[in-house]
Amino acid sequence: MNKRKSPRSTISQTASRSSASRSAALAGVSLALVAIVLTGVYFWPDFSEPLSDENKKAGNSNPISDRSSGEPARSQVPLPSIVLPTEPIAFETKEEQERLLACLDIGLRDFPNDAQLLHAAALTYGELLQTEKAISYFDRALVADPRNLDVIVRRGDLLRQVGRDDDVCRDLQKAYDDGMDALPLLTALGNAYTQVGQPEDAQEILEKGLTRFPKDGALRLSLAQAQLQLEKFDAAEENARAAISLGNTDRATYLVLSTALLRRGASEEAQTIRSKMAPTSTPEKQTDEKYHDSFRGFASHTYEMIAGVYASHNRLQNASEALTRSLELDPKSIVGTTMLADLCRRNGRLKDCVLVQERLLQLQPENPVNHTNLASLLVATGDVVHAERVLRNGARVDSIGFVNMQLARFLLATDRSQEAAKFAKQAVDKQGNVDAYLLWISALKANGDMASAMAAYKQAIKIAPDDPQLTQFKF
């Protein structure tokens, strides 16, 4: 293999050294592992914008970074003591509303043109039914970030609530003309045209959307609704059925399908479908208790947005205070806990970061990144034995081979090449990528099994014959 700075070449060098004993290797490996094992395993989310649902579930993206430099920043002000609540605190709704608004006002005083803070303020005033004030903050947010799709779509929802449907169509169409053709905008624009009685425009937009997103059930339903207005009942039926097959099985979809069938003369089938539909339910009255619970989640997420802004400006103490309140309201927040772990890491408080990462692993034990992040932190604090235990536990539940690969690197770095080869092979079986193969080959070589290493190399060449890492590999 050509000499170059990489985890694999370093691992090979480490593994080729003569080992004294396992205990000696473990005693001396801590600092080496910071550079060798689990290289690049930190997947700290980027909270410069509100997270999508997918990202909230995944919990892995790019590091929070200082906006001016693009590099992770370090605070010169020590963070307060980390306290991880286990139960949600009690609060009075009105008092918490005032507290959240005060926090937003302070943030906007410090950063008056920050798009995310303006977005958070718009959402909060919308939540408090102060519609005109919410719209004004949405407008300011779009001045700061004109291509923020979430702001554009949410602003449109609010305009529609106050009867400004024509403004919604105009603004969404402008965004579309400017090249913003993501799925949420296409769906919103199609629905807006349908609602103002322009089904031809709706159909044109939605059909273009389906060329890119043919398996989106909501888009299919929106198109079927527009086609009902156009009296294209065959097409409406086809798209309604497609929406159902894609999992969109709410009442609105069956209503469109039964209406299309009825207008086509298939009244018996239409009646059959309608008889199976759930009866229209009276909207449940929003009690103070239900709103209290709903506002808890809203406020917790908004404090996370505020914390993200402060973190991006290297105001880590302010970020920590906002996150503390977020977690007091919702101790099980994956986003808030992940952000707090990153704040501790950036502030150099690795032991506190370990505690927070352990909580994150408790909250989301199925996420392999949580296992590897915790192991990496433990290595950095010198607790190599605990790090190995975490990796082994993670490998038992790892379905994608990510933890298996990191455990193999760990074992190879601690001169246990035979066991490393076993876990590297598991990573190959689950991932099948070049990195996994190269790790497996390195472990086999370190174990002295050159025949198996060559066989593994030939397997890798078959799946990636032009990969430069393989073509340049030398035994």
Could you please describe the fold and organization of this structure?
By secondary structure, the chain is an all-alpha fold. Among the domains are: 169 residues, Serine Threonine Protein Phosphatase 5, Tetratricopeptide repeat, CATH 1.25.40.10; 130 residues, Tetratricopeptide repeat domain (Serine Threonine Protein Phosphatase 5, Tetratricopeptide repeat), CATH 1.25.40. The chain is built from 26 helices and no strands. Helix 9 packs antiparallel against helix 10 and helix 18 packs antiparallel against helix 19. The longest helix has 25 residues. The radius of gyration is 27 Å and the shape is globular.
Quick summary:
The chain is mainly α and 475 residues long. Helices cover 69% and strands 0% of the residues. Residues 1-76 have low confidence and may be disordered.
DSSP, total strands: 0
Q: What is the CATH top level name of the domain at 1-60 and 367-475?
A: Mainly Alpha
Structural class based on helices, strands and sheet pairing: mainly alpha
**What's the CATH topology name of the domain at 1-60 and 367-475?**
Serine Threonine Protein Phosphatase 5, Tetratricopeptide repeat
Radius of gyration, in angstroms, nearest whole number: 27 Å
What proportion of the residues form beta strands (DSSP E)?
under 5%
Task: List the keywords.
69% helix, Serine Threonine Protein Phosphatase 5, Tetratricopeptide repeat, 26 helices, 475 residues, mainly alpha
